[in-house]
Amino acid sequence: MTTPDYRTPIKNKIGGVFIPVRNLEKAKEWYRKILGLEGGEEYFGHVFVVPMEGTAGLILDAMPKWRKEDGDISTYQVPAIQFLTNDIEAAYQFMQENHVELVTEIQDHFYFVFKDLDGNLLMICKEAS
């Protein structure tokens, strides 16, 4: 059996994850607090990039070119991004203590879903050992 030739100039690597935010300054502080982020750089007046493990970085973007006529932007209505933890119970308690809006309780002893300040649905999962 011959293996197909999939030569492409596109790398099999995720460079970053974009999260649409309404207020970049508030989002920067919230994500720093919740994920323990340090550093980061702002670009073009609407993009903030913070290095993270596993990708080139988490990108908070006010997305001026993608806004609706009324100036609003769409948010993720399904949990499209998964953050990892070694202790799902401690992560859930941390989110409660920080008044993060929790959408689910811990499911299957493995994950839970929450909302960021802009209403994006995100997920915390227990890292597979």
TrEMBL record:
It holds the Pfam family Glyoxalase. Residues 13-129 form the VOC domain. InterPro entries: Glyas_Bleomycin-R_OHBP_Dase (IPR029068), Glyas_Fos-R_dOase_dom (IPR004360), VOC_core (IPR037523). It comes from the Bacteria. This is VOC family protein. It comes from Lysinibacillus irui. The lineage of its organism: Bacteria, Bacillati, Bacillota, Bacilli, Bacillales.
